[in-house]
Design goal:
The chain is an alpha+beta fold. The protein is built from 6 helices and 7 strands, in the order H-E-H-E-H-E-H-E-E-H-H-E-E.
Length: 181
Amino acid sequence: MGADLCAEIGHYSRMTGVLFPIGPNVEAALADPVGRAGLQSAARQIAGGAVTFARELCGPAYPTREAAVAAHRGRVDDDGASVAPADRFCDLQAVLAPGETPRRIVWRLSLGYWRVEGAGATEVPQARSARRATGNRSLDGGSLTAIAGQPLRPLQPQKALDIGLFEIRLPENPSVIIADE
């Protein structure tokens, strides 16, 4: 009984998970990945630097699911063929078509991958800084798109709150906080 249990445990330890591609952006990860890894530690070792997991849409939009499956045959599961477990990093997602009225649903390829930090990334100023800087009165479309696509970052760390929502400082002694009802 003990040998059977060890054999079964050994079988499960050799199972493979999804091996996600590694790249600086979604297009590079799909077309020419640096390598593939299932765990962040393995991806970090292959990339030689920091990586983060990302899931992004890529490629053109398709009017029907059948058209999307036909275009990405071998990358996504369909009725006739199944993708190997290690290769299941692609998926099809239904999204709203941009800018059309009435809105309609289109299908796009969604790719899970390890994004290499700092690879091909350019430092984009925050909108607040770019707007206030002298000489940047009118920004070109590419700069505006890059600024709009970056995550929001604070200009400085947030200060700890020392007063609650229903509390006020006494006007005659600001160091005293009292409840406001």
